[in-house]
Amino acid sequence: VPARLRAALIAGAVAATAFTVLAPYYGGWPGPHGPPIFVITQAVVLLAYLLAGLAAGQLRPAERTGLLFTVTGYAWLLGWLTNLHAALPFTIGFVCNTLYQPCLAHLALAWPHGRLRSRLDRAVVAGNYAWNIGSNIVGALFWNPRAAGCGAGCPANLLMLPGSTQLNEAGNLIVTVISTCLTLIIVARIARHWISARGYARRALTWMIWFSLPVAAYLEVLEIASNYDTGISDVVVYGVCPLILAAGPVAYGVRMLLTRSAAGALGAALVNLEPGPDPDLLRDTLAKALGDPSLRLAFRVADGDGYLDTSGLPVGSAPPTGRVHTPLGPAGDAILVHDEELRHEPGLVRAAAAAARLALEHARLQAEIRAQLDQVRASRTRIVEAGDTARRRIERDLHDGAQQRLVTLSLALALARRQAEGTSPGLEELLQTASEEAAGAIAELRELARGIHPAVLTESGLAGAVQSLAERSPVPVVIVAVPGGRFPAQIEATAYFVVSEALANVAKHAPSATARVTISQRTEQIVIQVSDDGPGGARPEAGSGLRGLADRVASVGGLLRVEDAADRGTRIEAAIPCR
Amino acid sequence: VTPRAEILVVDDHRGFRVFARAMLERDGFTVAEAATGAEAAEAARAVRPQLVLLDVQLPDTDGFEVARRLACQGDAPVIVLTSTREASDYGGLITTSAAAGFVPKDQLSGMVLQAFLDGARDDKRPSCPPG
Asked: How far apart, in Å, are the Cα atoms of A383 and each of A380, A388, A452, A575?
């Protein structure tokens, strides 16, 4: 709504309210001596419609609901013109005093979007306007205000035929019957709309049913009470009952608030969803927030132009009648299939689509990260595996090549020394020294090869390798249990390095302790425990050895734990899955 | 030293065989050679050695398997495994094998082998473990 129009509407509402309150003081009928509740009720109903019109124009500029509310409000005001002490406004006020009624019918039949649905509805509304204005003009011809109790000084009815009398009872009866029929037709049309509506529109029309039934009842009471002597007090008929009319705009305002809070609830609901929500849960949340239980969330089929919804049912590329596709994001990989009526809540649908997009994007990113993490894990495993293989090959090459030749050389030197025995003491000594050098080189090479990869692991598996580690360890080692079978090379290597590093740690930090090694095979994992009875003090974050070991264990999907309690020694435990 | 005891040296490394033969012959043994497990089986049948010095790593089959086969034939020789590696590199495999013992290649001497021969004379036949 343009700012100028809004300002005019606000000014109009203020002026109309002021007029409502002040008009009775300038005479007319019933004038300043009427019960104050007349003025209050008149002002409340007027303001309810004008403010609802303002709010509707502001929040739903594309709809005509705001216009209809505003027109109904001013139509309601016209009846109040009878309060002015002048013949023309008095007459206009009389003729238009029920004009708000066809306006109300128009609003109700055009509910919730302000547009009439069918030719029949348009005919009913037009007929209603015509009947209302026509019957009031005809009525005015025969209406003598003085006879109706508008005492002395009452303004003249400009339309009154000279010397006319009140309509007779037969005339009144015809008017009442036709008005009642029209009211019933309108209520029936509203009920028809309600029955044929679904989802969002049905909810909106449920409000209208609850509003229109009491209003219709009131209008009937008004029709009868103003034509017949019913004995119902004027205060009730003109003062209290019209407040029912204000219920519609108030309900509309409440509905607006609920819609806004639905958008808020939508945000809250989606924020509260776990990261990467289950599509079913996302659908339910969206359906609830949009008030459309039939809402479907569908994803594009990988190689085709159709969609599949969260229940796995196919969704065509074109929406069926009464349904609308709202794409989630420009790519259109996912869509919301919802009630067509929701197009009148574009803000809410946009919010829902944006929230769903966020949730799906979140889920997609999560899946992507998970996939990347899986890849990184797999590549880490492969890197460690490749490293192990390379080390095994180097050890093998050293053994088959340099070590073999050195051993042969050492044998040759021993032989040469024995042949030189007693012939040349100088040569014998020289050969002795050479033999010792060769022996030293062999020992060093063996140690180097073992450091690169323990041959015993390849040759005899974990049990032999752990035994060999225990034998070479400078601290006493008790092997409590080691499974005898063979495991995948990587598992054996990891288990071996855990024991090796743990024993090296014991030797370093608790040289006077005794270490205990327990390796147990459980259903799906091998658990390696190395404990000592030393003073404790191992901290995985401090030493690169334990940290490297933790990385190594993690590379095969295992977990390393270091328990360190003062006076109770250190306990290193690694659990390695073995598939 | 038992005169002319027959020793079969099984190793695919020619250099080792050359020096082992020279050393053992110098110590008074008669030496036959084989380069593979298959040759070893053949030579053992033909030569009937008292002792087989058997490399653990052979190109066709591993020394433990050759030892098992040799031990399970009639009139089995004393089998001594050898390697450039140390015994501990084989975990418990050596003690559970059909061999009488192990000598690292760089520790080889006629005296060591003679000790095995002497030990075997006191002992019973080498056991024939199931395959």
From this structure: 5, 9, 16, 20
DSSP state of A511: T
pLDDT band at A201; cut points 50, 70, 90: confident
Summarize pLDDT for A507-527 with one digit per residue, the tens: 988 888 999 999 999 888 999
Cα A119 to Cα A108, A124, A125, A202, A344: the distances in Å are 15, 9, 10, 21, 21
Measured torsion, CA atoms of residues A348, A352, A353, A357, in degrees rounded to the nearest 10: 150
Q: Is the pTM of this model over 0.80?
A: no
Alpha-carbon distances, residue A549 vs A315, A508, B7 (angstroms): 53, 16, 48
| CA-CA-CA-CA dihedral for A484, A487, A489, A495, to nearest 10 | -70
Which of A404, A409, A472, A477 is best to mutate for the B interface (most B CBs within 10 A)? A404
A431: three-class secondary structure by DSSP: helix
Say if the Cβ atoms of B16 and A404 lie within 8 Å: yes
Complex ipTM, two decimals?
0.88
Nearest CA of chain B to the CA of A535: how many Å?
31
Residues of B in contact with A404 (CB under 8 A): 13, 15-16, 84
Question: Three-class SS of residue B57?
Answer: strand
Work out the minimum CA distance from A452 to partner chain B, whole angstroms. Answer: 13
Note the pLDDT of residue A58.
80
Cβ proximity of A216 and A186 under 8 Å? yes
Q: Which of A407, A456, A461 lies closest to B84 in CB terms?
A: A407
Say whether B106 and A400 touch across the interface (CB within 8 A): no
d(CA A70, CA A75): 9
8-state DSSP, B107: G
> Do A324 and A292 form a contact (C-beta atoms < 8 A)?
no
Query: CA nearest B107 in A: which residue?
Result: A411
Q: Tell me, what's the pLDDT at A198?
A: 73
Neighbours of A166 (CB within 10 A): 13
Is residue A86 a contact partner of residue A124, using CB atoms and an 8 Å limit? no
Residue A420: both structure tokens together: 């030189």
Q: What digits encode the pLDDT tens for the residues A32-54? A: 566 788 888 889 999 999 999 98
pLDDT bucket at A292, cuts 50 / 70 / 90: confident
CA pair distance A211, A575, nearest whole angstrom: 70
Amino acid identity at A167: L
For chain A, the distance separating the N- and C-terminal CA atoms, rounded to the nearest angstrom, is 69
Residue type, A13: A
**CA-based nearest distance B125→chain A, Å:** 26
Q: How far is B10 from chain A (nearest CA, A)?
A: 14
